[in-house]
């Protein structure tokens, strides 16, 4: 090797050492910078004609475990999802109150029961009657406010989805722009580490909004998909659109188009990401679950409580009378007092098989057919019948819905008769009864429509669609407010001191058992919750408390996983001052050694130049 070659090799070593010191200094300077990863310099033997001529540095690179990075992003999405749920469910739990709190919805039901008990003990007291009405008004107002709060929270989730979608679009554009810069620099064999850090920060932020899958390409760029497989970014990003709604109520659902949906727009193609199930984690998924599942279930619980409260205090059972026609026997029942939503319970046996049928009066044919979920009873067959037609049509519809062995007829007026076929041992009509909600307040029945649907005083009869949002409309009957003696007097002959009606209302509220819709999340479809209205209210409070506690535990567990993965990732990719100082010492020694070689070569050149002088 000539002195010139040695000088070139020493100069290349000096340059590589200088570059290494530069990278080390930047690592140390960014020790606390969010998203910065440690950069390392690779050096290779420089060759010319197959012979080494020194050292050559390559572009600074990061050392990233891509599998660990993807795990961290998945965990971050899960943590964001759990945190959104935990925060919102904590607010719902606070709204429902604690089981032992007088301010909870269960406490309000209990306060109403206490007032009924006091009125039963002193029915002639005007103060007791007014106290009862005041407590009933407080209960109705509480249900109204809680329903309004639930819908406000759904609207808040809607707005947060809109904001998150806007942020996701901005992040996708940022990633696409950095992608392009990285591809250009990598093609020129330039360092891309800092740009990769910038891109990763955007992808990390995107993963907290929605679960994504990142695929690295050979040119240094990345392709991003949803976890459901929909392409979000290749060379260019897609556009996400959200048709935000500015108003929501209990009837606003994803199924009927009452809430916004997220669409993926790519050219002329549009994909509904919610329908495709593409967003399964992240903050957006959390807000979607709250808007479309958790909060609607809370609304359904309030509506069910309000509906059962109104029905429990007002419903009456109408018994049937025995009927015969030749050899055929059965029962007949007068339907004159039935309102839309009122029911006829029919039990018959055909061929040794017993079937229970709930016949629902429907006045709006567009609500038909009714599902079996209209009642909480898992063992009945629900049949909706349009009563807003001549009796001949009602009878024909009933006969079409029932076996031929059950003969339906109209003997007179509004009476409907159910008979067997008259063949011994073939069919039997076991029982017939009706459940009605009388509009009268002093018609001889002890029930009372204390709560009505809205300011117009419409009787709540559970007609199809009436239950949705009822908690937001429930009010105390103005007729009872105007004449508080109706709290005691159930007919024209009731004595002032008669406690019959208050005692019956108290039993209806606190001891009489009712079945509640499984759609509330209380009980199952095959085993619905049965209990008093008071008991159901306490169960709702306990349900929300348990749900909030579970969500908090889930969020804490997800945070532990995400933090553990973040620590592992930081330990692998973060800057360690001790390591950098140790590396700096090595670079300093290398720099000094190369400089010493250059000095020596200079001295040798000086010797050569002095020869012959």
**Alpha carbon gyration radius:** 38 Å
Give the strand content.
Answer: 15-25%
For the largest beta sheet, what order do the strands appear in spatially? 11-19-14-15-16
Specify the structural class: alpha+beta
The span between the termini is 26 Å
Please tell me the total number of domains. 3
Helix content range: 40-55%
- In DSSP terms (H or I, runs of 4 or more residues), the helix count works out at 12
Structure notes:
The protein is an alpha+beta fold. It folds into three domains: 3-63 and 575-610; 67-306; 316-436, no CATH class. The chain is 48% helix and 18% strand. It contains twelve helices and 23 strands. A five-stranded mixed β-sheet has the order 11-19-14-15-16, covered by helices on one side. Strands 12-13-18-17 form a four-stranded antiparallel β-sheet, covered by helices on one side. The protein has a three-stranded antiparallel β-sheet with strand order 5-6-7. A hairpin with a 2-residue loop joins β2 (43-48) and β3. The longest helix has 62 residues, at 126-187. The protein is elongated. The two termini are 26 Å apart. The mean pLDDT is 92.
Short description:
The chain has 12 helices and 23 strands.
Secondary structure topology:
Blueprint: H1 3-29, E1 39-40, E2 43-48, E3 51-57, E4 61-62, H2 66-96, H3 105-121, H4 126-187, H5 193-209, E5 212-216, E6 222-226, E7 231-233, E8 239-242, E9 262-266, E10 269-272, H6 282-314, E11 316-319, E12 321-325, E13 328-334, E14 343-350, E15 353-362, E16 380-386, H7 391-401, E17 407-409, E18 415-419, E19 427-436, E20 451-453, H8 470-473, E21 474-476, H9 478-482, H10 500-510, E22 514-515, E23 530-531, H11 533-573, H12 577-610
Parallel strand pairs: 15-16
Antiparallel strand pairs: 1-4, 2-3, 5-6, 6-7, 8-9, 9-10, 11-19, 12-13, 13-18, 14-15, 14-19, 17-18, 20-21, 22-23
